[in-house]
Design goal:
Length: 500
């Protein structure tokens, strides 16, 4: 086991967490907010920063002690078990340290709820156990937003930006975290790809914040919502989410939710000046995942508008449109209460929760490309039933998929189905007073990183009423869904640790 590599990765992640804490405290100190608790909770933040920085120092010492002599005849490359460990364990470690401000600062959450809030932020789920956002210190609101922004592109991708590691190790880990298609990773320099992804991500965040500021939000509100919009995450600063904001702010936010739920590598292709414009447009036309995502979203919007037209309760068109885009992109912002919609309308939202956005975006869900491949594999196998000698290899975005794609897709879909069923049954056992639809939707919202669900966990409610057992179970589902299930489950394989 290459502990030197593992300690190095953990050390860098803890350093990044410390820097993020300092940034949250600094922004909270500089930004004023008349409509929120204007305190900065300095004592709690100092304690959180000291604990995290001290832990990073211990990891640095451990890294130095496990360093191999230069003349020792050992391989310095990472084996598969190190790759799996450093693709999964960082989410658990960062979740624990990200919970510290919630424990030491108001609202002084107990450990289980603090972990829930921290993991919900880092995985960009957006579910919360805080009942009154306007009563907690503004530094905590900023911390919630920064954790979601860091988790938007991924903790591992951020660490690779700093470490600069490339090759097969980097591609394996980043592919697991971001659901990037294999050809997006193979056809580009990994260092260049990561650097350009973060540059694009930062640019979109600044642009989003500028627009929200121009459309009437305060600097405090604009910065917080820009961080969580580009991460398609859903933490906000208001108890009613986006309900009280103006139409222009909602439309601006909707556009950025859609932009950030499309594949980021596609934007890099379109901005590549080395390629002729006709080649860039051709690649855009070939990107069928984007086309199908927009078709699905447009169909859902049309269906919801028609359904709500005949709904006696009714809802403003802009709010209904906002909710559909927010759920389709797995962001989780809400405008109004979609729990009042007819059953068919809520079923449409449930389907959108499962599908999610495009691979290589900040959105959650199964990802559209997996749905496309599932339909194509199904069609091939149906034809093969009466043409058994037929050889066919499906494509995605005009690129042939890897030979093991069907097996990986099968694992993801079956494990997602298993955890959906097992999670729902377990939650009903832990929460006998909750409705079935509430338990099912809470598990789906956690697994696919959406946040708001239905019934007791709808857009006007939160997860504060959960028991300790459920509060600890749902963050596990969040991490499972964020990493595509596979890389978490293989941690429990004996063969991995013995032979790889």
């Amino acid at each position: 086991m290459n502990f030197h590599f593992i300690f190095n990765s953990i050390f860098r992640l803890l350093v990044m967490t410390t820097i993020a804490m300092l940034l949250s405290f600094g922004l909270g100190y500089c930004l004023s907010s008349e409509s929120h608790n204007d305190s900065i909770a300095a004592d709690g933040w100092i304690l959180s920063i000291i604990i995290t920085a001290s832990s990073s120092l211990l990891m640095l010492i451990a890294w130095w002690l496990t360093k191999k002599p230069k003349d020792e005849n050992t391989s310095t490359s990472e084996t598969k078990k190190e790759l799996v460990a450093t693709s999964t364990i960082p989410w658990l470690i960062c979740g624990v340290y990200a919970a510290l401000p919630y424990i030491f600062c108001a609202p002084n959450l107990p450990l289980d709820k603090a972990l829930f809030e921290a993991v919900s932020g880092l995985t960009t789920t957006g579910a919360t156990v805080i009942t009154d956002l306007q009563e907690i210190p503004k530094t905590i609101l900023i911390w919630r937003s920064i954790t979601q922004w860091l988790g938007g592109l991924g903790i591992i991708i951020l660490s690779f930006l700093i470490i600069g590691r490339s090759g097969g190790a980097g591609r394996t880990m980043i592919g697991a975290e971001s659901s990037l298609l294999s050809h997006d990773l193979k056809e580009r320099s990994l260092k260049s790809l990561i650097r350009n992804l973060w540059a694009l991500y930062i640019f979109l965040t600044l642009l989003c914040a500028g627009g929200l500021l121009a459309f009437g939000l305060s600097p405090f509100q604009a910065i917080n919502h820009a961080l969580t919009t580009t991460a398609t995450a859903g933490f906000g600063t208001e108890n009613d989410s986006f309900t009280g904001f103006g139409t222009a702010a909602k439309l601006w936010t909707m556009s950025f939710m859609l932009i950030c739920s499309l594949s980021f590598p596609l934007y890099l292709v379109l901005m590549n000046r080395k390629k002729k414009m006709e080649h860039r447009l051709q690649e855009l036309r070939q990107h069928e995942e984007t086309r199908w995502f927009l078709i699905i979203a447009s169909t859902a919007i049309t269906a919801i508008l028609v359904i709500n037209h005949f709904n006696p309760v009714g809802q403003p068109v802009i709010d209904a449109l906002f909710n559909v885009v927010s759920i389709a992109t797995t962001t989780g912002f809400v405008a109004g209460d979609y729990n009042q919609w007819p059953l068919l309308g809520k079923e449409v939202l449930l389907v959108l929760m499962v599908i999610g956005g495009c691979g290589g975006s900040t959105a959650g869900g199964l990802k559209v490309w997996r749905i496309i491949l599932w339909v194509r594999f199904l069609r091939i196998e149906l034809i093969r039933a009466f043409r058994p000698r037929m050889i066919s290899r499906p494509t995605i975005n005009k690129h042939p998929v890897d030979e093991g794609a069907f097996g990986q897709l099968f694992i993801v879909l079956t494990t997602a189905s298993f955890f959906l069923a097992a999670g729902t049954l377990t939650m009903q056992l832990f929460e006998p007073a909750m409705s079935t639809i509430g338990c099912i939707s809470a598990v789906i919202a956690s697994m696919f990183n959406i946040g708001p669900a239905f019934a007791e966990f709808g857009p006007t409610s939160n997860y504060a009423k959960l028991s300790t057992a459920s509060t600890l179970m749902l963050p596990v589902l969040m991490i499972l869904g964020r990493l595509g299930f596979v890389f978490v489950l293989v941690l429990f394989s004996r063969k991995l640790w013995k032979h790889y």
